[in-house]
Specification:
The protein is of the alpha/beta class and about 300 residues long. It contains 14 helices and ten strands. The chain has helices spanning about 20-25, 50-60, 65-85, 105-115, 140-150, 155, 175-190, 200, 225-235, 240-250, 255-260, 265-270, 280-290, 295-305; strands at about 5-10, 15, 35, 95-100, 120-125, 160-165, 195, 210, 215-220, 270-275. Strand 1 (about 5-10) and strand 2 (about 15) form a beta hairpin. The radius of gyration is 23 Å and the shape is globular. The N and C termini lie far apart (about 65 Å).
């Protein structure tokens, strides 16, 4: 009896073994052949569709709609790449940059999305990082933290989401050489590299090689000095130019970043740049009364617990 171990995605064409499947794929360019135990519908798992991720985020995060949509899409494709890592037709996600003031929910949006699709989330305070060879937190320490967060599950570790917070602080330092060196090491980490981790650092039985190629990277920062510059331009402008500046005065574009002393190599790797805004009084009220992560609800539960 034919086992039908492999099939052509989207067509009722089956193969008994991998050699037959490979020969067919070579003759039919663009054809995708998968193991038959992977159901076709799993390409669009209902609970992990972008809309489903977005609806989950809406339960906890008020406002910031653009950022939630971008993260939902990025997490969907990242999860898809995790499941179908050997399929070249699925391109790896590029890094996403989230720009906005402290307290606007940059980290929380990414963390909740990772929670929903059950992917390891690693938060990094980029402002505290140092270059390799200097005592302090470096990309080598980051690799160790990733493996520990994944509980030594290398597959999970190599498909984690890394959030580089306070990325703008690297370029505000009076020591330009420091910021450039650290950003270059981050760039190598983001582009894909292999990090050797000794067994004793993570409590494993043997040394580990961690590959970063399939990780999803998110970069967050306020870049307040750029906002301040744009505000000064607005104050010194008049007429039509003033109208244009008012529309985008609190948003930062790729062009704005290129004008600053930020490595062009790093900016060139960004897949998406999205802005989040400062929370309004109305936003804060809705967070307290409508969000499932409301700190008010948590406080009420503490009071109830103590009678």
């Amino acid at each position: 009896m034919r086992s039908n171990a492999f099939k052509v995605l989207g067509k009722p064409i089956y193969f008994e073994n991998a050699i037959e499947a490979q020969q067919y794929a070579q003759k039919h360019t663009g054809t995708v052949v998968v193991r038959n135990n992977i159901q076709e519908t799993s390409l669009f798992p209902e609970q992990y569709k972008p809309l489903e991720i977005l609806e989950y985020l809406d339960r906890f995060i008020i406002s910031q709609d653009d950022a939630k949509k971008e993260i939902a899409i990025a997490m969907y494709y990242h999860n898809l790449n995790k499941k179908y890592i050997d399929n070249n037709y699925l391109n790896k996600n590029g890094p996403v940059m989230i720009i906005g003031p402290t307290g606007s929910g940059k980290t929380f949006i990414v963390k909740k999305a990772c929670e929903y699709i059950d992917i390891v989330f690693v938060h990094v305070d980029t402002s505290s990082m140092v270059s390799e060879g200097i005592v302090g937190y470096s990309t080598g320490n980051l690799a160790v933290d990733i493996v520990k967060k994944a509980k030594l599950d290398i597959k999970k570790a190599e498909h984690c989401v890394v959030f580089f917070d306070e990325i703008d602080k690297l370029f505000q330092s009076s020591d330009n050489e420091y910021g450039e060196e650290v950003s270059n090491q981050l760039l190598r980490f983001i582009e894909g590299t292999e990090v050797h981790i000794t067994a004793k650092d993570v409590g494993s039985k043997e040394d580990i090689i961690l590959k970063t190629d399939n990780m999803q990277f998110i970069l967050g920062g306020a870049f307040q000095w750029i906002i301040d510059k744009k505000q000064k331009e607005k104050n010194s402008s008049m007429g039509f130019s003033l109208d244009c500046l008012e529309k985008d005065n609190n948003s930062i574009t790729l062009e704005d970043l290129y004008r600053e002393d930020i490595p062009k190599e790093l900016l060139g790797r960004m897949d998406t740049i999205v802005n989040v805004h400062k929370l309004t009084f109305d936003d804060c009220y809705k967070i307290l009364t409508k969000s499932e992560s409301s700190p008010l609800d948590e406080f009420i539960k503490k009071i109830e617990f103590h009678g």
